[in-house]
Specification:
single chain; alpha+beta; 7-stranded mixed beta sheet; 5-stranded antiparallel beta sheet; 19% strand
Length: 544
């Protein structure tokens, strides 16, 4: 029977989600904006952020600094509401009879901010360009028929066919049980003609992009590098996320403490990341305007196999020893003041299908004796000697305290030299990671793109995946991902994904640390603040 996408509900564990702002006079409801901008406030909302790593091209943005902006200036076929439910946006309908061939019909009359119409060609060309240029998020198009295998290159994927200006079809290589859930992720946004073509020209376009979302850049000088980006409502946007304020200014902070102090002093309206220095006090200091709720964020650190002592059997033993040398419970309690929860797997407890008793997760338990035993077994293969274990992190993200605690736990347990290695900002760290130049372990994490277990696994650990920072590759894991994707239901797919996680627990391509609560707050006089399932505030409905 044909299914219409309008009826689809994302498989989020609703019982674990209470995703509205904490109670108080300034708290808002969880409802979406109606799209009526007539009641919009003229006030500009100031929020925290970080300098994007790359120009603002949807298929080439996979980090939170740029992603926060991308989601405001572009609109896709669908969007996720605060509870993680999927709603139509640019699409009039998305239909399939077999989970393999999808027919997409667009709403008529939608435009980009340059006045050009949003058509089927804008979606197809943007997706094909992402694949052709091997953009960071091109992995998300892998299920589509014609996606290149190995080192091949294609001009266009045969699975994407334009029917008319407002209709196109998507044919997958095989049925995918959760493909429709993915379409709200930014990689699937469209681009106008100006954003398609020569890579250098596209990069220039991304510095002053033309989008189709609820906001647009406030002029040619709206983006001040390492300072801020200023967005204003898009007057031609006619969708369900219409701005209820006079714009959003995203300030780029080098330190979270500075952002928090600006919030307390009234120089910032909304903060989505409380620094660890304030974990014990922020709920009292914000007096009913604090946010502390579950979210789909997973934290870890990654050790590339290419580093000395971390390949083959020796590397596996050392990663397992390091994992069991970390006292996660103590760090979550003392450093994070219980705003984090020790990890039990590679996903998130707010996602449907999560299991705290995942097979193989005993490697995440603190066990001093076992850690020393495993380290000694690795030394028997190749002695560690006086080498130093370093864990890299960006100093502008409030990570020093937990990194210091983590490396101290490792140092005290294994009796080796261990220390944190700070980078000045997120971009400088990510550039070395992306270019495979980093020579140490480094902090990693994942904020879900769409509400499914598969989103925490495939993009990070699948062979060749765009966010596979350690270049991990395991055929057994890849095969289980493929089987899960072609399952007849999300539930059946989740069972296979748990088997895939058992493979990860053996190899530890990343070492899970903890799940994050979203901790944030808003200033006095700011209203309608709701933090969504993925920890991001619903910016378009905030007023003051």
């Amino acid at each position: 029977m044909k299914r219409t996408f309008l009826r689809l509900v994302a498989p989020v564990a609703v019982a674990t989600l209470a995703l509205t702002a904490c109670s108080g006079d300034s708290g808002g409801s969880g409802s979406d904006s109606t799209g009526d901008s007539g009641d919009a406030s003229a006030a500009v909302i100031t929020v925290n952020g970080s300098e994007p790593q790359n120009p603002l091209i949807p298929t080439n943005t996979n980090e939170t600094g740029g992603g926060k902006i991308i989601d405001l200036i572009y609109s896709g076929l669908v969007y996720y509401d605060a509870d993680g439910k999927v709603n139509l946006e640019m699409a009039e309908s998305i239909e399939t009879e077999d989970n393999q061939l999808y027919t997409v019909k667009l709403k008529e009359g939608q435009t980009f901010t340059d006045g050009s119409a949003v058509t089927a060609k804008n979606f197809v060309d943007a997706w094909n360009q992402g694949v052709k240029e091997d953009h960071l998020s091109s992995y998300f198009f892998e299920p589509i028929k014609g996606f290149p295998e190995d080192e091949e290159s294609v001009e266009a994927m045969e699975g994407l066919q334009i029917v008319d200006d407002n209709t196109f079809t998507i044919e997958l290589k095989q049925p995918e049980s959760d493909f429709e859930l993915r379409l709200g992720y930014s990689a699937f946004y469209p681009l106008p003609e100006a954003g398609i073509g020569d890579p250098d020209a596209v990069a220039e376009f991304g510095k002053n992009p033309v989008g189709n979302g609820p906001y647009m850049l406030d002029g040619d000088d709206a983006w001040e590098n390492n300072v801020a980006i200023r967005l204003v409502p898009n007057p031609d946007y006619d969708g369900p996320r219409a701005a209820q304020n006079g714009g959003v200014e995203i300030k780029f902070y080098a330190e979270q403490d500075a952002a928090y102090n600006d919030l307390l002093s009234g120089n910032l309206d909304v903060l989505d990341a409380v620094p660890d220095s304030a974990f014990g006090t922020f709920e009292d200091e914000l007096s009913g305007r604090a946010i502390n709720q579950p979210s789909a964020i997973f934290q870890s650190f990654t050790i590339p196999d290419r580093l000395e002592h971390f390949s083959g059997e020796e590397g596996t033993l050392r990663k397992q020893a390091l994992s069991m040398a970390i006292n996660r419970e103590e760090i979550c309690e003392t450093i994070f003041q219980n705003t984090r929860t020790p990890a039990k797997d590679f996903t998130s407890p707010v996602i449907d299908g999560w299991d705290e008793d995942a097979e193989g997760n005993e490697v995440l338990n603190y066990d001093e004796a076992k850690a020393k035993e495993l380290w000694a077994q690795a030394d028997a293969i190749s002695p560690w000697g006086d080498a130093k274990f370093e864990l890299a992190y960006n100093a502008d993200g409030g990570h020093q305290a937990w990194v210091d605690a983590t490396v101290n736990s490792i140092k005290n347990t294994l009796g080796i030299e261990a220390a944190g290695k700070p980078y000045p900002d997120f971009k400088s760290l990510r550039d070395e990671v992306t270019n495979e130049e980093i020579q140490t372990a480094f902090r990693t994490g994942w904020q879900a793109d769409y509400p499914a277990l598969s989103n925490f696994l495939g993009p990070l650990y699948g062979t060749g995946a765009g966010s596979n920072d350690g270049n991990y590759s395991n055929a057994e894991f890849d095969n289980l991902l493929t089987e899960a994707a072609s399952a007849s239901s999300v539930e059946e797919g989740n069972e296979l994904l748990m088997q895939a996680q058992a493979v990860l627990f053996k190899d530890l391509p990343a070492i899970p640390l903890w799940y994050s609560n979203v901790t944030g707050g808003y200033a006095d006089g700011v209203d309608n603040v709701v933090f969504g399932w993925n920890s991001v505030p619903i910016y378009h409905q905030i007023t003051k």
